[in-house]
C-alpha cells in the first residue's frame, strides 16, 4: 500500500495566506495517484509556556507513532517536510518505519536548515537543532524530492546521497476547471502577490516609480507611499488567479529593490517560491532574480525574464518586442496547464 501523512490544521485563522495551498494540492495529487491518507490533526499552539511546549513534544511523538502504526511492512509513505506536527523525536518515528522495511519519500516544501540559518530572531541552539533534525530525517529517507538543482547541490553538500534526490522543478498549483483568467497584456502593471508583510518583502517600500504595480495579498501596509502601486486586497488561494491582472508576476524577496537580500532574499538562491507557480497557473510570465534558483527554470522554459535589480525591469520591458512577449505567453500557458493538473509532482514520484 502507498500512504501519505495528511496533517489537518483544526484552527487555521489565516486561510487567505497561501502557505498551506502547496500542501493541500500535494494531498489531492497523492490521493489521485492512489496514496491513502494517514490523518493527523493539529491545533495551532496558543501558549508560550515552555512546560506545555515540552509536553506537546511527547504528545506529538505518541500521536505520530499511533498514525504510523497503520503502515505495514513493505508499504510506502510520503511525508511533506517540514512536518507541521513538528517534534524533536520525529527522526525516531521515521527510524522505526525504516526498521519495518517501509519505503519513505520526503517532499521538501521548505528547508529550514537553509531558510532560518541567517535569521537573527532564531537562537543559535535552535538553528543547530533544526539543522541536525532535518539532516537526520533526510539521511534516513529512501527518496527526497528537492525543489531544483541548487537545492539538490546544497543537500549533497550537507551529506545527503545524490542518488536519492529527485528535482521537482516547480510546484504545482491546482485550480478548479471553471476558473476564468485575465489574459496578460504587455503594457499592464507588474503583479506582486502573496505575503506582503514588510519583514518579508520590505523592498516594496522602495519599488522604482517608473512602472506600475498591482499588489494582492495579506500584510500590506498603508505606510508605503508610491503613486505607482495599486493594492487590490487579499483572496483565497483558489480565487486569487481569476483576480490577477497584469503583464508579469514578480518573484522577489528581502528588503532591497536592487538585489534579493536578507534571510528571505538569500533563500531564493535555493527555493522555488510557490508564488511562481501561482503566476504560471494564472497565465503570467515571470520576473525573477538573476541569482535565484528559479532563473534556470525561467531560461530553460522561456517563460519570463531575469533581472539583477528591480531598477532593470523598465528597460527590459521597453526592449521586449510584441513577438517575444507572445512567445513568453505561449510557454507560460503551456506550463500553467501542467501545474494546474499536478504534472510536476506526478513526474517526480514516477522517478
UniProtKB/TrEMBL annotation:
InterPro entries: Gtf3_C, Gtf3_N. This is Beta-1,6-galactofuranosyltransferase. The keyword Transferase applies. Residues 190-350 form the Glucosyltransferase 3-like C-terminal domain. It comes from the Bacteria. Keywords: Transferase. The lineage of its organism: Bacteria, Bacillati, Bacillota, Bacilli, Lactobacillales. Residues 8-170 form the Glucosyltransferase 3-like N-terminal domain.
